[in-house]
Write a structure and sequence with these properties.
The chain is of the alpha+beta class. The strands form three sheets. A four-stranded antiparallel beta sheet has the order 6-7-8-9, with no helix packed on it. The protein has a three-stranded antiparallel beta sheet with strand order 3-4-5, with no helix packed on it. About 4% of the residues have low confidence. Strand 8 and strand 9 form a beta hairpin. Among the domains are: 56 residues, no CATH class; 59 residues, no CATH class. Keywords: Signal. This is Secretion system X translation initiation factor.
Length: 196
């Protein structure tokens, strides 16, 4: 064994002895009994005058003066015992405090949400973007014929033709094809190339 181990073993033995066999009597003195004739428990501070009534901070009115103040002597010091006050007067009601004063309310560091848009500021509904793909065109008997595809469907359209009850071809004037979106009566254009 090393010297350090021997020293720690001696310290453990001494601590164990003190824990079990040391004197365990408390060194406090017995408290003096309070006279029963006085109904107070609040003690005046040594620098306060006993003849001046106290001001309650919540009511802003003087509290009652001491009820039969009797000086109590303890260890050579004289202390004055004042009358007991109502608990409600001493403790503020938690509901009276505003939410700004309370430190335990939930707080959020997120910015406030933007104001809701007014009805007049809502955007007007608009036609969906054109889902047609231009495949080609042909001029036959002086009228244009345009070939369009949407998904796997192929459409051959002329002026004033209706596509699936949703779009109506208004005009075919290369380089644009003008379509009318029938539910909202909005015009849309599709590029179909030059005039050849």
């Amino acid at each position: 064994m090393k010297f350090r181990h021997i020293l720690m073993l001696v310290a453990v033995v001494v601590a164990t002895y003190l824990a079990f066999f040391a004197d365990k009597t408390p060194e406090t003195e017995v408290a003096d009994a309070v006279p029963r004739g006085i109904q107070t428990t609040n003690l005046a501070r040594p620098n306060e005058r006993a003849d001046v009534p106290k001001i309650n901070a919540q009511q802003q009115t003087p509290t009652t003066p001491p009820v039969s103040p009797k000086p109590v002597a303890k260890n050579g010091k004289t202390q004055t015992i004042y009358a007991l006050q109502e608990r409600a007067a001493l403790i503020s009601d938690g509901r009276k405090a505003s939410s700004e004063e309370s430190i335990f309310n939930s707080q959020s560091w997120n910015p406030p949400p933007p104001p809701a848009p007014k009805a007049s500021e809502l955007p007007r509904p608009s036609a969906p973007p054109l889902a047609f793909t231009y495949l080609g065109k042909m001029k036959q008997d002086g009228a244009w014929e345009v070939y369009l595809a949407r998904g796997e469907k192929v459409f051959i359209v002329h002026a004033d033709s209706v596509i699936e009850g949703v779009y109506q071809v208004t005009s075919i004037l290369p380089p644009t094809l003008t379509l009318n979106y029938l539910p909202l009566k909005q015009m849309q254009q599709l590029s179909i190339g030059g005039n050849y």
